[in-house]
Amino acid sequence: MKINQFAQIDVDAEQALTELQNISLFTPTALTADLRTNLAHFLHRCFPEALTPSSQNEAIANLLLDQTTTVSAFLAAPTTLTAVQFYNLALQLLGFEATTDFDLADPLKFMRASQLAFADTSPLDNATLLTDIYLLLTTHTKLGLTYLDDLADRGFFATYTGPRPLFFNGKAQAVFDTRHLIKEVVYVEAPLDTDHDGQRDLLATTIIRPQVPAELKIPALYTANPYFKGINDVDDLLHNVDQELAVKSAADTPLPTSTTTLPKPRSVQGRAQQTEKIATDNSSYALNDYLLARGFASVYAGGIGTRDSDGIRTCGSVAETTSTIAVIEWLNGKRRAFTNRTDNIEIKATWCNGNVAMTGKSYLGTLAVAAATTGVAGLKTIIAEAAISSWYDYYRDNGLVVAPVDCQGEDTDVLAKLCLSRQKDAADYAKVKAIFADELAQLQAGQDRTTGNYNAFWDERNYRNQIANVKADIVLVHGLNDWNVKPRNVEKLWQALKTTGVQRKLILHQGQHIYINNMPSLDFTDMMNLWLSYQLYGVANNAPAVIPNVTIQDNLAAETWRGHHDWAPADRKRQLYHFTPTALTLEEPTDAAFVTFKDDNRQPFEQNKRDETRWLNDFITAAPAYAANQFRLKTAPLAQPLSIDGNVTVTLQAAVDQPTGLLSVLVVDYGQAQRLGTTPSMLERKGYRLNPAGQTDDLVEFKLQAATDYKLITRGHINLQNRQSNTTSLPVEPGSFYTVNFDLQPTYFRLAAGHQLGVIVYASDMGMTLRPQTVANYKLDLNACQLSVPFTKH
Amino acid sequence: MKINQFAQIDVDAEQALTELQNISLFTPTALTADLRTNLAHFLHRCFPEALTPSSQNEAIANLLLDQTTTVSAFLAAPTTLTAVQFYNLALQLLGFEATTDFDLADPLKFMRASQLAFADTSPLDNATLLTDIYLLLTTHTKLGLTYLDDLADRGFFATYTGPRPLFFNGKAQAVFDTRHLIKEVVYVEAPLDTDHDGQRDLLATTIIRPQVPAELKIPALYTANPYFKGINDVDDLLHNVDQELAVKSAADTPLPTSTTTLPKPRSVQGRAQQTEKIATDNSSYALNDYLLARGFASVYAGGIGTRDSDGIRTCGSVAETTSTIAVIEWLNGKRRAFTNRTDNIEIKATWCNGNVAMTGKSYLGTLAVAAATTGVAGLKTIIAEAAISSWYDYYRDNGLVVAPVDCQGEDTDVLAKLCLSRQKDAADYAKVKAIFADELAQLQAGQDRTTGNYNAFWDERNYRNQIANVKADIVLVHGLNDWNVKPRNVEKLWQALKTTGVQRKLILHQGQHIYINNMPSLDFTDMMNLWLSYQLYGVANNAPAVIPNVTIQDNLAAETWRGHHDWAPADRKRQLYHFTPTALTLEEPTDAAFVTFKDDNRQPFEQNKRDETRWLNDFITAAPAYAANQFRLKTAPLAQPLSIDGNVTVTLQAAVDQPTGLLSVLVVDYGQAQRLGTTPSMLERKGYRLNPAGQTDDLVEFKLQAATDYKLITRGHINLQNRQSNTTSLPVEPGSFYTVNFDLQPTYFRLAAGHQLGVIVYASDMGMTLRPQTVANYKLDLNACQLSVPFTKH
């Protein structure tokens, strides 16, 4: 077990004592007290569920200082306290088991192996005891929380009367009671009329916040969540992907444009201090829930077209961004909200200090990115996980329709319909059915599945175009195995942010499209607590310097996260690999060589019940049914490990016997090894506590799985007609050779020595591209093919 | 979607009005009011989250009565209300979506198909409106709750001032606030000293209960849960199953007996009104949580040898039962508990009305069965799910060591160690380490893995021996695909209970070892609410007559549960199947026929990484690697469906070329079909609400899976030396033929017409039996073999 605590910050002894005093653990007189007195005082506070000295003593009596000394015996008779004894005690308090987890003879060995912080001074004096206790309170338990969090969840702050909010080791603590939360709904008036009813769109906004004294203003964590009010079944809207690529004309089809005039704001008929609708929705993100008890309100809004709001869904449009930031503007005092949709009674966010952070994953994180690129006032930071930064990079690639994995046939129109949860209210839906049908037609025209080209529609949905507006500091989190929102989205945003002056942080994990808040190996929640305490409460915890610029989870070893200066910088050295008929080589080949492959997956794919996951596995292992449909090369076993960092690029010279063609590339790590799963394994259902009121998340961890023969590193696709750019269509003459050069998805991947780097060139990707029904024959001129791999020594 | 509501009870119009009045929905004057007035009054109460008339009107405005009539329009102008209109409205309130789920032109068609209750009188008059509203409140929403539960979860009872507890339609309602629960620990003094420390064992007991007025006494749902305080890793204690069967001697090995004297009770030093330790544990069962808000306390105890308690684990012994019922005796005022383990301050369960039900699954349910067989006062009923009724039937079968599936090598000693959570407290564990080592040795002697015979050790652990003591009414729940606690445990208990006078109910589902409280297709939670309201609060709801004696989930159709009079009665007709070399036949064969098979699974099993699940699949499909290790027969395709009900029995005449031998039998349904999964599929994570405070469970359902070629129906195993009984060992002469006749696990299984009934005879079962390493050769005399199948026309 390895525990990586990036957010455990160093403080000096004076600061430690002040903070211990803030939580009523020690007073300054402790410095002159006896060591045993201080230890006993501390231990009696370590069992907040035990309300009497007898009950506390019983709990203390369960602890051993070493194989032969009980803590009770130590407290009864004066002697020295060694570091070994103290850390035996500390580990038991942290939930580790003597003998099972660690050896009482050498607890420090376990602490080193687990990467738990400790101070190896022995014997302890009174002063080091206090700083060691401070350190212990900031150290993680077996269940992924700091020990102070663990104590808080067991009632430590039940009788706390000090200042609220409370910060300890730079992070906000659970001193607010979340048993009686205020849960309410207001209707924010957005400067939009997307449903063309002549009235500005009202947006139902859910606020969940702890009860605090009236004079305390608290910040808000806002999650814009189009799925918040439920989703619709869209199976019948999915596009057929079993079809030919189009022969494109050179000219772009002009898009229809529509102009609407914005109605005037509603005239305010009164002002209220109280909302009039209770929110009954479940929250959508455990990090928000965790921070509720620590003094951060949670705010959720579905946005235009979702249930209980006005408007229609427009998938990634400027209007959607306007809808998203309207809520921030209200929280920041710059826009109106009403208590209901009828009476025009205004209500202000008087409880809010005006500071807002956005959180969320996938579409939710995407809208955080969208909001940040407006520079809206009040938005101090975003924590965007697995976020889209350009919708073209979600649904298209190099002039091809390329679906997110497991989403074949989906597109902006399908997603718009999926999220139009107004459909759930029959009478309400009747009002917008026709308007929304028009919008779907416009989305279908704009997304243009026929050409797959980048156009004005996609350009509107490329948030990176507005990068210069960004004022909020940015945390980006992404899975290196996320084939839904592919890593290009985060990489291009990361690079673009370098042109701005904002603080930026990046965390890359080995998962696919998941949250990472609940793993013992990474103190993600603490990192975000530190960050948000700094951003929204102005706590001087040095968060931008403490949190690494880039944190990357290792793909070879479990529970290993490292800080890096950067990811995928443009100036990484590159290793060129050349193509011969039998291997990927470092030496440039001299003999001319051509190879051929077919594009004819259809029959075995049907036989395997159109199972896309199985297809990919069979394809990578060159199963007989697919062997003729690919050209596969491997390097010799690597003499040294290789750390790929950034965009692998591929150059191919290819001909096809059809007037259209596409090329797909997989880059693969071949070699038998146990590898991390891309979905974390369950450690304990409901094992991760979020607050003293008993809310939980599951406790999970990425685990090494049974040995496999390969691991997909990265992939990419291109339309042969788009060999010049994703906006320009050039003709394809059957039999003519064309050169394409394109980036595969960026990554950070360590290949172990002895493994082989592999590349597979093919055409249709059953899980991602259109699947032309005509059998095509491809030819590669190997001398003009190469793979360029950026690498690092780190 | 099919919804089976067994606990929705009929009441007359007068009773309905009284109950509506109890929840302040209507007063008796409603009978003389206008229909529209009553409907409007009701609808305004259907949105308890909307606190003002404007806000309520907005919610009402979202509803359609039919394709062209909004509810708002109907309420504005007088006209008739048809049943179609009312049930369109009702379905929307229940969370079903117009167009998507049902057709506004014919809502009753959907209600019939879903089995939702309705009253088809049209147009409605004022009186029928009221009874229809009553019916609607008791009908399930899309998410598996009654509509009144849904309203409660959204705040319906927030302003309720009527009587508590409140019963509606015979079931307790969520009128208690569970945001501020009392969570406390007491120490019950059991009449035991299992850790031989000269003091009676104190048992930590966790109580979770709502705050209620002092004069209200409430009943308790008690879950005895040995896993409650955590479990230990026991991998190094697992027994090696890759070994030969023993040649047994005829004589039984006598077991060591130990006698201990029971210390005197502690002398009480004072009495307390308040506990002094707060419980911080998570609860272990969602049904208990659901009932908390409805006026039932939850009580959890780990029992002897678990963390924070005295004693040691003894796995199924009489002492364990004594430990289990000590808590009931305290709740019922007949035993002492203390506030801590030091001061001998007594505390009474003054909040309890003395009525206790036990709940829980697996070991938890087992201890409920154990408690019931003592006849302990106060225990009114148990709801035992997947419970062991005799530990021999859990770890042994017919003189063989037979493991629960996925638990090869486990035994009573392993389980005792697994649950000895005192090990988690280092100093506490040191006190009992030696005593527990002695106990492990005794368990190992008693369980006697060498012979596998039934002996005094197992007889102590056969709760059915005490069936005559049972006073509590019994609900049994079991999975027909549970190969952990095998169905024999519930079937033999069910039959034994027929000799008692208690009420008994049985629910058989198609799952393996799971809970079934959170599925939309069955109102299990309501059934238990009805039952417990009757048992513990004495509500005259006729529960014993309302709930079917036996409820069985169909294995062919999804979401289909039917009431039956009995299961596996002894007098079921039987169909005999004879063995020929090529088929199972109805006609008795005339020609002599012998067949042979080997017992030699080892090599392919190792090659497949000892994957037991894969082994079973390969074995049933007669994969080449295993084809020589079995004799497999099928009937001709069935002309008629066949409903198997009870114990399939098998008679075999076999010889083996070794001095030991075992026979295993699988009975299989062969035929391509979509079949229900044995684990429910996730419908919505956290989608099943437990109470207004926001606690949830996942919403799940058994779904038809991708088509498969077969389904295992039942199985069984026998040691050839135990052909006479599980207590008598007879010698096996190599080459001699012996007749065995034994019951396979009981079941209820419907074979569709066109399918084939199959039987596989073999020796080692890699997932369940010992695996002899010597290759053995078996011979069957087919003329003396047959399969006897009990069947029913139902």
Automatic annotation (TrEMBL), chains A, B:
**SUPFAM superfamilies listed in its UniProt record:** alpha/beta-Hydrolases, Galactose-binding domain-like, X-Prolyl dipeptidyl aminopeptidase PepX, N-terminal domain
Q: Reaction(s) catalyzed by this protein? A: Hydrolyzes Xaa-Pro-|- bonds to release unblocked, N-terminal dipeptides from substrates including Ala-Pro-|-p-nitroanilide and (sequentially) Tyr-Pro-|-Phe-Pro-|-Gly-Pro-|-Ile
Domain named X-Prolyl dipeptidyl aminopeptidase PepX N-terminal is located at: 1-156
Gene3D superfamilies in alphabetical order: 1.10.246.70, alpha/beta hydrolase (3.40.50.1820), Galactose-binding domain-like (2.60.120.260)
Keyword check for Hydrolase: yes
**Enzyme Commission code:** 3.4.14.11
Question: Which EC class heads this enzyme's classification?
Answer: hydrolase
Xaa-Pro dipeptidyl-peptidase C-terminal domain sequence ranges? 529-788
Write the record's keywords in alphabetical order, separated by commas: Aminopeptidase, Hydrolase, Protease, Serine protease
State the source organism's domain of life.
Bacteria
GO MF terms, alphabetically ordered? dipeptidyl-peptidase activity
The UniProt entry's sequence similarity note says:
Belongs to the peptidase S15 family.
User: Briefly, what is this protein's role?
Assistant: Removes N-terminal dipeptides sequentially from polypeptides having unsubstituted N-termini provided that the penultimate residue is proline.
Subunit details for this protein?
Answer: Homodimer.
- Name of the protein in its database record: Xaa-Pro dipeptidyl-peptidase
